[in-house]
Structures are given as structure tokens and as C-alpha cells.
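Hey, weird one. I pasted the NADH-ubiquinone oxidoreductase chain sequence into the form twice and got a warning about non-standard characters only the second time. First submission, copied straight from the form history:
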Amino acid sequence: MITRSNLAEQLREYQIRSKHGWASVSFFSSTSNLTSSRVDVAIFVIWELVILAFLVFSAVSLYFKHLRLAVILVFITILLLLCMKITKQVRLARKKKRRMLLPLSM
């Protein structure tokens, strides 16, 4: 006989099986319980490399005493960080909403 607890257990097992074995390398990972696809991870790694490059360029510009350029680069970096965080939250909310639409029998 199919009971609600059996369906919940099947859903838990399905989620465990479908979960990826590798973790996101993003240091912004505040919710690590939701899995990410390889494309998402690749996009966020590229974003993080661009942010790191901006931070390095701002440090180099400070070394050569170009304060205005360093401030502009730090400002752009902060904007990129915010955009990255917002994009990640939107994607995770979309995935969570899509998961909630799955029938319990899956």
C-alpha cells in the first residue's frame, strides 16, 4: 500500500540519487543544499575570475598611484559582485520553484 511516508521517502531517495557528487566552487555559496549544473558553475567561475582580475588591476593601479582608476575598478568589482549574487539567487529561486512543481510520486 502506498502511504504518504513511502512517497516522501521515495522523493528523498530520488533527490539523493540525482544530486551531483561535486560541489560548486563559488565562494558565494550560501545555499549548498541545492545542486548546480555544470554550466552554472562554469559561469560563476568565469565571473569570479573577472572579479579577481579587477581587484588585481586596482591593486596595480594603486601601486602606480592612479587613485581614481583604482576606485573606479573597485566600484565596478562591487557592482559585479552584487550582480553575481542577485543572478545566483534568481536562478536558485527558479530551480526551487520548478522542483516544487514536481509531483510527489517522482
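That's the output from the first submission. The warning seems to come from a hidden character in my clipboard, not from the data itself. Confidence is low (pLDDT under 50) at residues 21-26, 30-34.
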